[in-house]
Amino acid sequence: MSRIKTFNLPDLGEGLTEGEILSWLVKVGDTIELNQPIVEVETAKAAVEIPAKWAGQVQAIHHPEGTTVEVGTPIIAIDTDPGAGPLDTTSSTTATPTADLPTPSAASLAAVELAPAEGMVEPGLIGGAAPGGRTAVLVGYGPRTTAAKRRPRKGAVPAQAEAPVAPEPVAPQPAVTPEPVRNGNGGPVPGGLVLAKPPVRKLAKDLGVDLRTLTGSGPLGSITREDIQQAASGSVAAAEPVAVTSTATSAASFGTDREQRIPVKGVRKLTAENMSRSAFTAPHVTEFLTVDVTRAMKALDRLRGRREWRDVRVSPLLLVAKAVLLAVKRHPMVNSTWAGDEIVVKEYVNLGIAAATERGLIVPNVKDAGRLSLRELADALNGLVQTAKSGRTAPADMSGGTLTITNVGVFGVDTGTPILPPGESAILAFGAVREMPWVHKGKVKARQVTTLGLSFDHRIIDGELGSKFLRDIGDFLADPEAALLAWT
After folding, report:
1. To 5 degrees, how large is the angle CA 375–CA 378–CA 381?
2. Which of 83, 111, 338, 481 is deepest in the core (most CB within 10 A)?
């Protein structure tokens, strides 16, 4: 049996197909124990630490930090019996990381004759290498391996011209020879060709930039749009010094140097897919209700003052969650799922709480929240939020949600029109609690007021059911003590 065990990226559940390696917790040569965390991986739902399946010594790390790998891909090799002596270096099972190989000297590199590599030029580059040793042209591939000749521009001096047969001698003129095209490493491009995509060539023509005078920064010295724009801005700055301040202000740059490109992956990618699927699958309806929650806020103050609650963080979200759970008992159809030819009504409530984290929006849920007491619900909500903020929410905690609350009030927002999480039929937006003028007992007084926004799947919940459900939540928040006496 081989001593070297290859550890593949495991399936972390919920149909996840890939993960990004955030950080390695070990390095090559480290001795590790069974179940010791070795790598932190971010999936589409959370960042998790993966433990080792074997004890031994790390022999190879196959993927660096920041790499996205598919489930089942080897990520690390472990020698399970390092005390048995040195490994057989000829064994194909021993992998050596590229980073650990010795760096060749300059002399050895110079002595090696490299064959042209296929596929090194981006697709579409005229003059680039193509499969079979042919030359890529604008459409298809040419049959020859020699450098393609291009028609010279009008008025341009060719780089190499055949000596014309002059009928009579003329005065000698200094030859105009453009600088050879060089690649990103300063070396000449083979064949003297200017490597650039057709859109780049058009941009150069529009801006009056001679491609032959540029040093390309792309693959194999190909010229990019950035090279063209930089050359154009440099020539304009040199030829037309700005004398008027207003002109300098109006000549703003809108190039890629003022843009930021953020890869869509992990939590952000999953959120985008889920929201798009939900928004264009479930017919959304949103209703709003403004509620005087002064009594609820006073009830929270009294709750915080009780001895058994002094070490518990009590927030308005706790009462909103309790209101939702009690309203579900009165209207069970709200806690259901559309399943094509049937509606699945669930007797349990996995209450989701939308949480904004550094990695994006996640919705962990409190399992079977309807069975919890108010104190148990408070502890569960506090633990859920703290775990989410630390980025340690497990994928299982974000699966199986049946109904969700999004607390947009923490951002000072009054309410919103939330999008349903896939598989759920209702989501409640809880807005900011503000002191506002309110008619109370026939007089205008300053009261604590909030606005609720309920989005629901109109295939399951009609207007009457959605309105009654939202009204009951509002009634509880308006007078929680009376609602508890009346409904429980």
Report:
1. 150
2. 338
Give the pair of three-digit tokens for residue 429: 């937006």
Rg of the chain (C-alpha set) = 34
Answer with the residue of higher pLDDT: 385 or 219: 385
Residue corresponding to tokens 């989701």: 352
What per-residue confidence (pLDDT) applies to 287? 96
Q: Read off the tokens for 168.
A: 């009579």
Residue type, 203: L
| Amino acid letter, residue 34 | L
User: What is the Cα–Cα distance from 94 to 54, expressed in whole angstroms?
Assistant: 16
Q: Which of 136, 114, 237 minimizes the C-alpha distance to 185?
A: 114
As a whole number of angstroms, the distance between CA 252 and CA 232 comes to 14
Q: Which class for 228: exposed (0-12), middle (13-18), buried (19 or more C-beta within 10 A)?
A: buried
Task: Write out the E strands in 250-393.
Answer: 284-292, 336-338, 343-345, 351-353, 355-357, 360-362, 365-366
Alpha helices, DSSP H only, in 208-351? Answer: 225-239, 245-250, 266-279, 294-305, 316-330
pLDDT in tens, 50-90: 898 889 999 999 999 888 888 889 999 998 888 777 766 55
Contacts of 413 (CB under 8 A, 6+ apart): 431, 432
- Chain mean position to CA 198: 31
Strand 434-440 and strand 426-430: the pairing is unpaired
Beta carbons of 396 and 317 less than 8 angstroms apart: no
Q: Which residues contact 114 (CB under 8 A, 6 or more apart)?
A: none
62, 284, 440, 458: the active-site residue: 458
409 residue type, one letter:
G
pLDDT of 178 over the 50 cut: no
Q: How many CA atoms lie within 13 A of 254 on its CB side?
A: 2
pLDDT digits (tens, 9 = 90+) for 432-476: 999 999 999 999 999 999 999 999 999 999 999 999 999 999 999
